[in-house]
Write a structure and sequence with these properties.
alpha+beta; 5-stranded antiparallel beta sheet
Length: 181
């Protein structure tokens, strides 16, 4: 019997490799589509999302002063947001709060965070899974948007980090509002 769990874990590892390869292939095909003149609106429509969501996931905004691609100020923001969401989903409210900057921590203590998450669950049902996060720079903030899928709806988890790597904002936005922006 001990081999069964090992086989299941090996299958997860294989699926993860396949998912990463598929994500890399998708990113390369989007780059080729852009290089051949397709708009973000066309790409978004093909992906079943908005042009903004497609750009945020695959685009590389250019600094108008230099023309060079703008890199997120916080290179590990995707991993940080992933850990924050894992802590949130596990109900580790203090661990989530420990990542907050002073201004957010002053307004969102662990009991308030638990209540906010309960409100999200009350609106859209139990959490089921999340999609691929997108990372982008918005002024002085590095922003990570992660699609969240629930039993009865969707939300976009938006985590904003300041230059010190502390959470400057945490939101669970209706997907329709994000895609229309």
């Amino acid at each position: 019997m001990p081999e069964q769990p090992a086989v299941a874990l090996a299958a997860i590892e294989q699926a993860l490799v396949q998912a990463r390869n598929a994500e890399e292939e998708l990113a390369m095909t989007v780059t080729r589509a852009r290089e051949s003149g397709h708009t973000w609106a066309e790409i978004g429509q093909t992906l079943g999302t908005s042009r903004q969501a497609a750009f945020q996931r695959f685009g590389r905004p250019a600094d108008p002063r230099t023309g060079r691609p703008m890199e997120p100020a916080l290179p590990d923001a995707r991993d940080r947001a992933g850990q924050l969401l894992a802590d949130l989903l596990a109900g580790r409210w203090a661990a989530v709060g420990a990542q907050f900057g002073a201004a957010v921590a002053a307004r969102m203590d662990p009991p308030r965070l638990a209540a906010a998450w309960a409100t999200v669950i009350g609106l859209v049902g139990e959490y089921e899974r999340h999609g691929a996060p997108s990372v982008y720079q918005a002024g002085d903030f590095t922003v990570v948007d992660t699609p969240l899928f629930f039993a009865a709806g969707e939300r976009m988890a938006r985590v904003s980090y300041d230059r010190d790597g502390e959470v400057a904002g945490l939101f669970f936005l209706p997907r329709g509002l994000v895609d229309q922006a």
